[in-house]
What we know:
It is built from three helices and no strands. By secondary structure, the protein is mainly alpha-helical. The protein has one domain. Helix 1 runs antiparallel to helix 2 and helix 2 runs antiparallel to helix 3.
Amino acid sequence: xxxxxxxxxxxxxxxxxxxxxxxxxxxxxxxxxxxxxxxxxxxxxxxxxxxxxxxxxxxxxxxxxxxxxxxxxxxxxxxxx
Length: 81
């Protein structure tokens, strides 16, 4: 029962973060929020008993992709026009 509420909380959190990513003009904040979406997705995968997918999502989605986007934003402008 408590795990079901926790999953609903995680899914609602992912939806809120996704709306924030789309609506914000600050590109760095959007990239960090998308990294948190990947981190929450890896927790969901772990709950669904897919630890290999969870580890891959955490390493690639939350880690490497976020880092590459942050490096790209540092070389360009931070705010969307």
